[in-house]
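Repro:
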Amino acid sequence: MGCLLVGGISNPIEVIEQITYLLFIRGLDDLNTLAEEKPV
């Protein structure tokens, strides 16, 4: 946790929000990739 404080993120909730956001975007990207690979 110390490295996060040095990195400028003092609020652990911000870390959780950013990780959640990244996972959400990654999930959308995975769905999009699957849709593109599916034969029409």
